[in-house]
Amino acid sequence: MWxxxxxxxxVDRNRELLPIVRPSSRxxxxxxxxxxxxxxxxxxxxxxxxxxxxxLDRSRLAAxxxxxxxxxxxxxxxxxxxxxxxxxxEIAIMQLEAGAAGVTTAKxxxxxxxIKAGIPSLTLAYPLLRAKKLDRLLKAAKKRxxxxxxxxxxEAGVKALSAAAKRxxxxxxxxxxxxxxxxxxxxxxxSADAVELAKLIASTPGLRFTxxxxxxxxxxxxxxxxxxxxxxxxEAHCMxxxxxxxxxxxxxxREVSVGATPTVLATKDFGPATEIRPGxxxxxxxxxVRLGLAQYRxxxxxxxxxxxxxxxxxxxxxxxxxxxxxxxGAHGGSNGHGxxxxxxxxxxxxxxxxxxxxxxxxxxxxxxxxxxxxWDPDLGERVRIVPNHSCPVANLAVKYLVLNEKGKSRKWxxxxxxxxx
Amino acid sequence: MWxxxxxxxxVDRNRELLPIVRPSSRxxxxxxxxxxxxxxxxxxxxxxxxxxxxxLDRSRLAAxxxxxxxxxxxxxxxxxxxxxxxxxxEIAIMQLEAGAAGVTTAKxxxxxxxIKAGIPSLTLAYPLLRAKKLDRLLKAAKKRxxxxxxxxxxEAGVKALSAAAKRxxxxxxxxxxxxxxxxxxxxxxxSADAVELAKLIASTPGLRFTxxxxxxxxxxxxxxxxxxxxxxxxEAHCMxxxxxxxxxxxxxxREVSVGATPTVLATKDFGPATEIRPGxxxxxxxxxVRLGLAQYRxxxxxxxxxxxxxxxxxxxxxxxxxxxxxxxGAHGGSNGHGxxxxxxxxxxxxxxxxxxxxxxxxxxxxxxxxxxxxWDPDLGERVRIVPNHSCPVANLAVKYLVLNEKGKSRKWxxxxxxxxx
Lengths: 421, 421
Fold this sequence. Notes:
Two copies of one chain form a homodimer.
Chain A: H1 2-11, H2 39-48, E1 53-57, H3 58-75, E2 78-79, H4 89-98, E3 103-105, H5 108-116, E4 121-124, H6 131-144, E5 147-152, H7 155-167, E6 172-177, H8 192-203, E7 207-213, H9 225-247, E8 255-258, H10 261-266, E9 275-276, H11 286-290, E10 301-310, E11 314-317, H12 321-324, E12 341-344, E13 355-360, E14 365-368, E15 382-386, H13 390-395, E16 399-403, E17 409-413
């Protein structure tokens, strides 16, 4: 099954080998970037690039991928990253090469990008009801022999999956979606629906009941690491309860898939989970920094922007809501202040105090000037911004400018951007 | 100069002729859509389409274009619509055919789309400082003989334009950007800078001082039509002051360009303006409805979405912040409640009470169920949503599904989407 992935790797001539990065004692290294002797090359590349654009720090990205894989392996669970954050085939391949079991996607059209690229195993973690969507997905998955898993949270969803399985003469693995507190999709772990739907999936022709799946997205409204850990514990509790109740009917729950980046960073005990599905960890953003789960220098994705005008209060940047998004955090959450934190290009480690992007128009960012900060960007100066929520920011861009530790750059496509169907 | 536009029109075989729409007494007609005998065809088309997607109501779009043109002509000013809202060549052509003097764009790469499509006259209403950007724009404009205007609000901007004019042996028309209260780009009308920069532009080789330009974006935080009109009056006052002070130095201010959709809808007296540059009026959105400047049935752009899950509180829709954006309004403004208003497909005129999209995840909308509303969408049911701010919503989509009054559909490309540089 891995053959198809390596076929893809072989034919993609733009692909680099993974860089070798020395891990630091704190787990998320950025040692190479802090060496003063290579800084001029990096800065030169950033000064030459047109703005606004998304810059990916290659060694931070690699470190984030390696660290999460190590965390999963230490806990004895599989890692199946959600690609909604990066939407990029090159990054999915880095994740698989590091040891990920497959990927997770939300929408059918974004799944097709990864299936066609040869990713061998994929969970479509979104309720599907419509024959047309299912058919276009299954056609591609069958052709590529992609290992697929689906979710369902309603009788209508189970019927739609069964009908699609029949049309394409396939057996589909189905996970029951459990609501662990976000109150979005899924059935409550203590509900009659949880048991009845599991039994329905198991007894429906063409479907194989594979386990249960959750997303504790409410963690994004936590205010610190302890609160995030409490959400992870509640998720573990809900999933253990659902598993126990379903297994009491004689039905084995083989897989228990959980995950959001803050919950998996906040705990080492995943309870009954067999798999975690974080997405945001590849890039991180100021939300995880606010929660105390990462530092700014761990963030791999920044927005490079230029000052195009200045007034008494603000430096006006050439990036607005059409670059930074107007998200204050995931799921409508807020980090309290502004739409991004900006640093000087000279502060590679983001160790100093940032200036805040306080307001956004569509193509303008209002960077609040601060006379006490010691940094007042000049007209034309470039800044690097850590966004509140990296996922929608990546979705707004066409390409990443990927920089290695020597300042060499290449471009990767945000291949699954805007594929919301 | 118009030849190049008509060349484009001729070679684009997908382009339809404009529909003939009967204007109603209230100026923004939707008569054809309310005829019951054609509703089944429209509904059939909407039921067949995959979701989520952006639907454009062709006759509402045509009416909005025609009505704004009539408003400009009645006031004796030119209309130069901002394409940031639609980013679509087909719509720009409709605007020009209705009588627009040209178009306005924010960024260089989006301008290139319209230059290459043969749009004959274009204002780049964004401060440009960088030689690389100016050169790629001027190269294309020169090749197509596109009539270009630029803005400047700093000495550095004037120098950059002059250097570019010299490199490409062109004369560039430059408008001085005036800050009329948004406090973003531009110089204050009563400042020494306003007079000095106008004189600098006029005396700089390669540049022709053409006039002054403003954007009263603060109007989006108004709460009613009277407040919006007051912003328009303040803008007119500022522009009259700037014009008078510059002309007192002996320098004629030939053009006075103003505009945002709410200010131009809220007033009939544009003061010293010679040109208006609204953008949002082609689609409208719930912001203009909130201000009392339009009704929901005037809105040409809606998001078609499906219910994919239901819980006690919400219908979960397949459109989240990656479709609706997380904008509460333009320039960070808010309309107070939620991320869109949803109607049943049976309520074509949006006359009934909508349900509110109260929260968003990236790919999920939380539509609040309301037992008193008489409408509780079923699992799988389609809804039509009016967004808070149509501009970023269009920017997130790849195509518009354009429907005419008979339910026939075609697709138009959001050709300048994501072109933020």
